[in-house]
């Protein structure tokens, strides 16, 4: 899969770079960057990593991917009015930029992007040196120049590569997302308006040009806090914890090939935490569990101290901290009074227990905090929650009464990176004709040939009654970082092991049935997928995404 991916990448890059190759030798230093504003919204809305289209061989030709010409003009600058990201400090200059290394011009006179030529050659490209998903060599200098131009630090190039892989599989999947994100780094049009750059000096700010898009992503990450807050910057780019974990896992893998070292990302990212005490008259009115939920949510979504008190005011007005709602009302709306549409769009597992419960103050506060964050300012977010001017005034007024003092400290954000599972093996190392399908409770595949155990394991069960085709193997890992985790391989498989059998990593446990498809994921010891309680047909679950990331780290 790595060779197929690199073949596609070479094709996608070829046409985009040919016209501007001479301008790409180094980032121009003669022009100052345009005004950088606080991100009005996440740059990307990706919900699952970009799939890679297979079936292309080296030396063939491809039709150029469809491109929607850009007609947007550069931002004229000025603040969006939203909360500034980590490290921005309200300045119009992107933080982290050195005085001697300036980013490319944002090309005030840039024109619409030209449509690429209809076909282009696929040059040969070396195979991957990092699992099965190495960085295409032609992109490496672009990541390096962009990271240097915007002062992203030693990890910058690897992070840019990690984002590029998740968003568009290094340019092999340039479809416009359902939300409207487009181009090599999947920018929303409004964000591109503010952060798009003309990196190659051709007079065009083109999200479908890899140089323009990668430099724009570097500009955004700089404004969002890199290099001092790598986690927060990536989280700003796409507001999902799984996304940050995926990007950092990729970056750890790619760092050596980008002139850095894997240890450049070994230090856990720092997360700002708030420890607050309300005004004296409110000390005994806010339950401790609620105050902890407000602190965590405001920290996580960069709402600051005012965010803590605003969330407290909403909870007091909506439900008197849960005391003024029936159990049924709490199960439906939660103590912060969220509507069904708000839960559907912004739901967050605030306390990390693997479930989203509307009545849980941590989940409710984190969900509302995410909504507020997405609107760019506290006032705009509260108005979105309840579109009445009196409500906004009531919340902000009561927040001022509740306001006390907060102590700010920083903690290591603990992320289990899939790449850390280095002593496990690709379960499809011996399989052929493998094609990745959808992500739901696990990850679907079609293929042929043997399926092997990911690690040393004990077989708990064979067969999967009630599942399509009823084939299956359920096994529990005996060692390694995921010791004790249970993995299911269900549907179109024939088991080659017996219950109670102990197998070694890489030992065959099953084989694909002819024409069959399988699903693999994490389960409990009874064989029920961990995501079963939250799953409905077609839903992309967190457990499925975790298995997808894990398999990617193993080279699938």
In short:
The protein has 15 helices and 14 strands. With 556 residues, it is an alpha+beta fold.
How would you describe the overall organization of this protein?
The structure is a single chain. The protein is of the alpha+beta class and 556 residues long. Helix content is 31%, strand content 13%. It has three domains: 2-265, Orthogonal Bundle (Lysozyme), CATH 1.10.530; 271-412, Lysozyme; 421-553, Glucose Permease (Domain IIA). The N and C termini lie close together (7 Å). The model is unreliable at 1-13, 18-40, 51-133, 261-268 and 414-421 (pLDDT under 50). β9 (471-477) and β10 (486-491) form a beta hairpin. The chain has helices spanning 2-18, 140-149, 156-168, 189-195, 210-223, 230-237, 241-254, 288-300, 304-319, 327-333, 340-346, 361-375, 378-385, 389-402, 542-553; strands at residues 61-63, 119-121, 270-277, 405-412, 432-439, 443-448, 450-452, 457-462, 471-477, 486-491, 493-495, 502-503, 508-512, 517-523.
CATH architecture name of the largest domain:
Orthogonal Bundle
Helix content: 25-40%
Structural class, by secondary structure, is alpha+beta
Question: CATH topology of the largest domain, which one?
Answer: Lysozyme
Order of helices and strands: HEEHHHHHHEHHHHHHHEEEEEEEEEEEH
Q: How far is the first residue's CA from the last residue's CA?
A: 7 Å
């Amino acid at each position: 899969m790595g060779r197929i991916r690199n073949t596609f990448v070479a094709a996608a890059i070829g046409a985009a770079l040919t016209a501007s190759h001479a301008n790409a030798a180094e980032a121009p230093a003669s022009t100052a960057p345009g005004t950088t504003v606080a991100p009005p919204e996440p740059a990307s809305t990706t919900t699952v990593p970009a799939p890679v289209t297979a079936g292309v061989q080296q030396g063939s030709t491809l039709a150029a991917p469809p491109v929607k010409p850009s007609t947007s003009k550069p931002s004229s600058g000025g603040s969006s009015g939203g909360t500034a990201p980590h490290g921005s400090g309200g300045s119009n200059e992107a933080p982290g930029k050195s005085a001697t290394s300036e980013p490319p011009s944002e090309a005030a006179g840039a024109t619409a992007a030209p449509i690429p030529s209809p076909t282009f050659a696929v040059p040969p490209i070396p195979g991957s040196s990092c699992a099965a998903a190495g960085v295409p060599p032609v992109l490496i200098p672009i990541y390096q120049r962009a990271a240097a131009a915007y002062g992203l630090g030693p990890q910058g190039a690897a992070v840019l590569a990690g984002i590029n892989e998740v968003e568009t599989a290094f340019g092999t999947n340039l479809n416009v997302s359902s939300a409207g994100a487009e181009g090599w780094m999947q920018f929303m049009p409004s964000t591109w308006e503010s952060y798009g750059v003309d990196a190659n000096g051709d007079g065009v700010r083109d999200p479908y040009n890899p140089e323009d898009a990668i430099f724009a992503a570097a500009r955004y990450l700089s404004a969002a806090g890199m290099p001092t807050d790598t986690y927060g910057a990536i989280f700003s780019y796409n507001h999902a914890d799984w996304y940050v974990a995926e990007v950092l896992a990729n970056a750890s893998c790619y760092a050596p090939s980008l002139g850095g070292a894997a240890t450049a990302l070994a230090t856990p990212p720092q997360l700002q935490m708030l420890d607050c005490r309300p005004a004296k008259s409110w000390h005994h009115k806010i339950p401790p569990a609620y105050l902890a939920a407000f602190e965590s949510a405001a920290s996580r979504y960069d709402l600051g101290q005012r965010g803590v008190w605003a969330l407290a005011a909403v909870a007091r007005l909506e439900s008197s901290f849960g005391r003024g709602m029936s159990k049924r009302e709490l199960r439906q709306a939660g103590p912060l009074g969220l509507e069904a549409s708000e839960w559907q769009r912004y739901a967050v597992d605030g306390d990390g227990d693997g479930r989203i419960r509307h009545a849980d103050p941590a989940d409710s506060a984190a969900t509302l905090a995410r909504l507020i964050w997405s609107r760019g300012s506290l006032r705009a977010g509260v108005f979105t929650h309840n579109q009445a001017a009196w409500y906004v005034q009531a919340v902000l007024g009561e927040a001022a009464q509740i306001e006390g003092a907060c102590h700010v400290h920083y903690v290591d954000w603990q992320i289990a990176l899939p790449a850390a599972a280095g002593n496990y093996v690709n379960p499809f190392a011996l399989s052929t004709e493998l094609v990745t399908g959808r992500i739901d409770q696990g990850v679907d595949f079609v293929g042929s040939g043997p399926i092997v155990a990911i690690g040393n394991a004990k077989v708990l069960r064979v067969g999967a009654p009630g599942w399509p085709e009823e084939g299956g193997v359920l096994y529990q890992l005996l060692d390694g970082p995921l010791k004790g985790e249970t993995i299911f391989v269900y549907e179109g498989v024939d088991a080659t092991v017996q219950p109670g059998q102990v197998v070694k990593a890489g030992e065959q446990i099953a084989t694909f049935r002819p024409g069959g498809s399988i699903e693999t994921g994490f389960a409990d010891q009874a064989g029920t997928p961990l995501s079963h309680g939250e799953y409905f047909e077609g839903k992309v679950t967190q457990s499925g995404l975790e298995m997808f990331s894990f398999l990617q780290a193993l080279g699938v």
